[in-house]
Amino acid sequence: MVMSNSLAGKVAIVTGASSGIGRALARALIREGGKVVLAGRSLDRLSALENELGPDSLAFPLDLASGAEITGMVERTVAHFGAVDILIANAGLFMTGAFTNADPDEWSRLIAVNIDAVFRSAHAVLPTMRARKSGDILVMSSIAGVSEMRNEPIYAASKHAVQAFVHSLRRQVADDGIRVGAIQPGTVATELWGPVDPAAVAARVAERTVLTPEDVATAAIFILSQPPNVTIRDLVILPQRQDI
After folding, report:
1. Torsion angle of alpha carbons 56, 237, 169, 22, nearest 10°?
2. pLDDT at 1
3. Strands 11-15, 178-185: pairing kind
4. pLDDT (tens digit per residue) in 97-136
5. Is residue 117 part of a domain?
6. Residue 120: which CATH number?
7. Fewest CB within 10 angstroms: 122, 124, 152, 214, which?
8. In this predicted structure, what is the pLDDT of residue 194?
9. Which residues contact residue 114 at a Cβ distance below 8 angstroms, ignoring those fewer than 6 apart?
10. Rounded-to-integer distance, Cα 169 and Cα 104, Å
């Protein structure tokens, strides 16, 4: 009988680790015995999380719109921990509203983070994964990536692009022992959607209209913990009362 895949000792890069889903992912990976590079924009938040998680974590502040900084993140990870076993491309920007009112500079930034940074992060980790004939690339997509959301034309387009990339890349690297998948959450109580008030979040959780970051992190650990012969290419996770 094939057992589950232990994450103990595995090295993961988590982008967008300073808050929300990324922070929950980092905590979950550490609980599983992993080692985590905490990548994101906020040095103060990353440093606080590094202090919380201990010596098996490493804060790496960066601008994901910069290809050079993404390359440096991967190089630093290999130098510090010796490998990259897991990339969780979680960082993302959100934009909603009428397309005619959108700021082109804002959507260019969104595309840089939501699409190009995912491409560049995967491109940067693949050589070390291919050399070791193993690895996991897990992309945090969205329900907007599999359903055209009326008020999110630019955000949904970015997530549809990520979905196409995930499915094509998976086919290209399968023979190298590398798994590629995506999680498509519905509404999650994170700062991406606005200020997070604990009491309000608790009320919405009780109403089953929102997910918590920890819910999504649990799903990610489930995917990564599957034995090597199993690939979960997509996992849609919704609040029980969210109907898309």
Report:
1. -30
2. 42
3. unpaired
4. 889 998 999 999 999 999 999 999 999 999 999 999 999 9
5. yes
6. 3.40.50.720
7. 214
8. 60
9. 92, 93, 155, 158, 159, 161, 162
10. 29
**pTM (two decimals):** 0.94
Alpha-carbon distances, residue 103 vs 36, 114, 142, 144, 146 (angstroms): 35, 16, 22, 20, 24
pLDDT for position 2: 46
Residues with catalytic roles: 155
Closest by CA position to 44, among listed 65, 19, 63:
19
Residue 149 lies in a domain: yes
> Does 242 map to a domain?
no
Place of tokens 């840089």: 112
Query: CA neighbours within 13 Å on the CB side: how many for 177?
Result: 13
Q: How many domains does the chain have?
A: 1
Residues of the chain scoring pLDDT < 50: 1-2
Find the domain containing 230 and state its range. Answer: 11-237
